[in-house]
């Protein structure tokens, strides 16, 4: 959600006022789109990374508040669980020295400083999609962050459901359990790439991001374990879809849309997404502010559209539209949310280069991929990729069902290189980043593959018990993470 909210109870009047105000915001937003009142001449990119807090043994540590106090940096903030933190990198232009490679030293410096401060109080930080040592009892009510907004969100989701959450994933092994809070969602730690775009181009960039989501997940999968079970290669995807589901079974059968949502169609305007939010999803947090957005716009200002953006933050699209106002000027962003955190900064930046370059190239094509590919195929790609990771076969126009590594090596890497070139990145900056993706495809190894191989090496060969094997694997993961060599180079021994 990204916004602090007070702890309170909501009345029917609150919900009526919120609905009316949100529709006013929608009308104002439509007017702003018609009048082109947005900043897009110098588009910027941004990055958020969520991390887990662990102790010296690699076990989850409920110390996020203590670690935040030790880091003492406004770039860091709380997340849903007491074992999570998030860092937000300052936005910058993608070209002219602001490409993904320019993040490396900044991110490493920030993470190293945070790790040093956390270590001083007996905690450590790890970038990983799901912490392998996390057990079900670690994701209970007492593990929910102290921030009131998460407690309020938890109350509203369970009030809408009227029953406990079912977490059910059939993968390499089978997990079936119930949760009485949304805390299992905190197991999902992600990397989020932001891209500022113009209103006229927003639909093309969002469609492109949707089309490549499955490819992204397949290559970057890093979440094969949950509650000691080996499940999907990117278990974050089904876990997140289930852990915030406001629908009991009866509403699912009726076709009510889930709040964690890939979507159901290609779009023609950013307005489509905000309108869908208002049409399909009741408010979880019906909080109104005092701004009259029509009055603000008539006066030449940029309205915050608070109700529209708050509601948007409770509809969890894998590619989310973002409206924001910075220094009095509004802008639009695509927030890409499909990727897990980690394994290393090097892997993260390579993933970013592939994403930014690829969607730029796809947007520039004469015949867009989304005009040749059904929306259902794009969604199927996402779930197939999450299940099978780098071994997935996905659909792509002109190639049919194809191994994702073959698709990337033959078709998508050249496109990404062309897109980054058009964004102003020199070959000397593009090639090392995309080279990581190339070698990941050639080796067939990403973070999830290494985790699985390393776990089985310890468990099956060394005959360690399951949790001990997961703990030892996690400790080895953390050691390699700090070395910052891409995960496809990590040995298993």
Automatic annotation (TrEMBL):
GO terms for molecular function: ligase activity. It comes from Streptomyces flavochromogenes. This is Glutamate--cysteine ligase. Pfam families: GCS2. Keywords: Ligase. It catalyses: L-cysteine + L-glutamate + ATP = gamma-L-glutamyl-L-cysteine + ADP + phosphate + H(+).
